[in-house]
């Protein structure tokens, strides 16, 4: 009859040496000096005594230990060594698991995850990883995630792309390129042929998908209306309107403005230096920092933003001397102290458009009637250059931090044309924020 109880097992105290408590039928509880307890099954087979481990207590309780001992005893009765039998079964299960893991590794999902991990160290922006995750998780994995990578055909690719191909063309193009990258990666690993059914060329030649609608550009306010727009924004409270004003005046991307920090701003040389890792594309190793010349209008915005750090109102000419601005604080923090969200600047424009009469045109819209967006002001700036000073188009491209499409030419042209851009950005600022009539325009000391 069993001798142990749940209470006796739980209360077994350690001693100076290892000792064992018997439950009968070969089941033993071994109690160790350090306090550990483990189950053993003692049996005789072919004239030899052996002890078989059944697991540690309390992970294996008394009831489970008795069942394991009973199963092992039945094998001994048949002349089977339960230790060898268990080891053989464990090896077989390990082999089956390895096979399952190998099959999973060679599915589209497995290869895609491996590719993401391989590329992740080179992505300097978390947005790139998030974008890959979103497109794969939402559109690719539900359709082809479990398909063996070597069996993916054009039909699989079309099935994944079809739901978004015409409804969300920009998303569809990203998804297509990423599926193609995964298949190319699998081919490089030797897991499929080099034929890639997801490339744009294959899809176009086979006409596997319908023609996409023309890509719509970001809605941009006509440049002639920018001064009136900024006058309204100037009357709004909070850091988001300040960031929006600064983005319009500098013509840089909103993310670069939202994450701007005070040490990046040099008020002696009147230059804002944006680190390469914050620039679009995540090519920090190949790109230099982007420099932006600061104008009087920009400095006025920064002086207003400095109040959130210093707690006192100072003129733009005092920015260089304010010690509090030398810390690593954000220039345009959210109320929580973190960087403004991607939607914060756009929300300012939406609030400005809320006063539009129902069914009537929006006060701040592009020529197609779509509400203006923060990114669209980069186009407003470029259109202003084209219409008013077309000879400065190259400087405007540098201001927008656009990469030269000609890679050979780009490799030999190292200047960012900073000094040529100073008068261009000053003219843009004076257009956007005209001086009051009759007011004398006095450049801030130190400005070139």
TrEMBL record:
GO terms for molecular function: DNA binding. Keywords: DNA integration, DNA recombination, DNA-binding. The keyword NAD does not apply. Residues 106-187 form the Core-binding (CB) domain. Pfam families: Arm-DNA-bind_3, Phage_int_M, Phage_integrase. Residues 216-425 form the Tyr recombinase domain. The keyword DNA-binding applies. Belongs to the 'phage' integrase family. This is Integrase arm-type DNA-binding domain-containing protein. The lineage of its organism: Bacteria, Pseudomonadati, Pseudomonadota, Alphaproteobacteria, Acetobacterales.
């Amino acid at each position: 009859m069993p001798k142990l109880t749940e209470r006796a097992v739980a209360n077994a105290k350690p001693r100076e040496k290892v000792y064992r408590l018997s439950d009968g039928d070969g089941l033993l509880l071994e109690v160790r000096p350090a306090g550990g307890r483990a189950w053993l099954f003692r049996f005789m087979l072919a004239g030899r005594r052996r002890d078989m481990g059944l697991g540690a207590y309390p992970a294996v309780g008394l009831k489970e230990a008795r069942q394991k001992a009973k199963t092992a005893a039945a094998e001994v009765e048949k002349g089977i060594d339960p230790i060898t039998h268990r080891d053989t079964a464990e090896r077989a299960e390990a082999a089956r698991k390895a096979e399952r893991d190998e099959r999973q590794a060679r599915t589209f999902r497995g290869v895609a995850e491996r590719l993401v991990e391989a590329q992740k160290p080179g992505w300097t922006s978390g947005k790139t990883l998030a974008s890959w995750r979103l497109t794969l998780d939402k559109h690719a994995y539900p359709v082809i995630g479990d398909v063996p990578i070597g069996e993916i055909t054009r039909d699989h690719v079309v099935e994944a792309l079809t739901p978004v191909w015409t409804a969300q063309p920009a998303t569809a193009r990203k998804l297509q390129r990423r599926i193609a990258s995964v298949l190319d990666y699998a081919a490089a690993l030797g897991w499929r042929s080099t034929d890639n059914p997801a490339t744009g060329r294959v899809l176009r030649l086979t006409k596997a998908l319908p023609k996409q609608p023309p890509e719509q550009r970001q809605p941009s306010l006509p440049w002639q209306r920018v001064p009136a727009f900024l006058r309204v924004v100037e009357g709004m409270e909070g850091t988001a309107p300040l960031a929006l004003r600064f983005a319009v005046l500098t013509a840089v991307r909103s993310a670069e403005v939202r994450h701007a920090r005070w040490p990046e701003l040099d008020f002696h040389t009147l230059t804002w230096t944006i680190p390469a890792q914050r620039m679009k594309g995540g090519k920090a190793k190949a790109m230099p920092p982007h420099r932006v010349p600061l104008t009087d209008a920009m400095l006025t915005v920064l002086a207003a933003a400095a109040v959130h750090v210093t707690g006192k109102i100072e003129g733009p000419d005092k920015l260089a001397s304010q010690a509090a601005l030398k810390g690593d604080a954000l220039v345009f923090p959210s109320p929580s102290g973190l960087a403004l969200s991607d939607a914060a600047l756009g929300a300012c424009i939406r609030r400005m458009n809320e006063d539009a009469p129902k069914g009537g045109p929006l006060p701040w819209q592009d020529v197609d009637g779509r509400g203006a967006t923060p990114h669209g002001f980069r186009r407003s700036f470029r259109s202003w250059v084209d219409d008013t000073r077309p000879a400065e188009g190259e400087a405007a491209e540098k201001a927008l931090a656009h990469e030269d499409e000609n890679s050979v030419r780009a490799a030999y042209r190292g200047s960012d044309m900073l000094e040529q851009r100073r008068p261009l950005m000053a003219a843009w600022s004076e257009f956007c924020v005209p001086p009051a009539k009759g007011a004398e325009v006095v450049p801030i000391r130190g400005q070139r």
